[in-house]
Amino acid sequence: MLTKIIKVDPLNPEKGAISEAAGVIKRGGLVAFPTETVYGLGGDATSEEACRAIYEAKGRESDNPLIVHIGSVEQLKPMVGRVEGGVSRALPVIWPGPVTLVFRRNRKFPDCASRGLDTVAVRMPAHRVALELIKASGVPIAAPSANRSKRPSATSADDVKEELGGRIDMILDSGEATFGIESTVIDVTRRPCAVLRPGAFTREELSRYLGDIIIPTASVSAPRAPGMKYRHYAPYKKLALASGRMILELSRMKDKKIAILCSEETAGRLGRECLVIPIGSRSDPYSIAKNLFGSFRKLERSGAEAGVIEPVEERGIGLAIMNRVEKATKGVVVSNREQLRRFLEADSSSWMD
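User: That's the sequence. What structure does it adopt?
Assistant: Structure tokens below.
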């Protein structure tokens, strides 16, 4: 399949490009498009054929539900059951924005994106290109991140091309995503509401509008939202979480076979002899979120055999950052030389399994 790439102005998207992309969606095809979080791989959320094509293009597990993107609150009404009053009042404040809400699904609405669940995950993206595409298509658009399953999410059209070129019909290129990390997913079918996936909209911010929000420890045998069950976001090269003390020790070893992914502040303390990939500043954790997946791809392109990454404080956006890091590293932590040895000796060929 030849994947067509069209550059689109993020603020004033060209009507011809949007119309052409909407035509692909209407025909059951797949279009990668920008949102404020990451690039999404879009297909008609009401079409079983289109949703199946999304799973096939990504190599995605069949029980992992998709997020449905809408362009207006009116589009939500036929999709869901009763919306609790407090949630309904919050919608105009948090949408458009980087937050996905899990509702009870209206049984009349197709379950293509829900994979048979009685719930549906919905969001309204805060990106002009995405909103214009949804409007022109005339249907809600199911759109997981536009990358192969388990891989770092795509934050640019180049990332999408690298991951899905030849597998999808079209890519709308509007430059880099703003947040660089996926939406927060909140289950509003329960009280108090629950975070199913931390993301760009923090729990603290959302609690102002949705009331108390908990972080449950429930089983994920039947995931209600993306990212709950399977390992995600992983680079092809091995990656482990390292303590600050271990990072300093690694830098003294002057071994460029191990890349150090860390804050700009830490990078400034390390010698030039080691391989350092700065992610962002601790004074601006959103910069770390934006650059996180890009740093994973830099690790892949580097001459290093493996990487270690510095943790951030798990509060605010840091909760979302560490959620992605823990999934990408398989929870592997390196805090001493023995753990480092075992990590480096682990079979690299099984890293993506």
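The mean pLDDT is 92.
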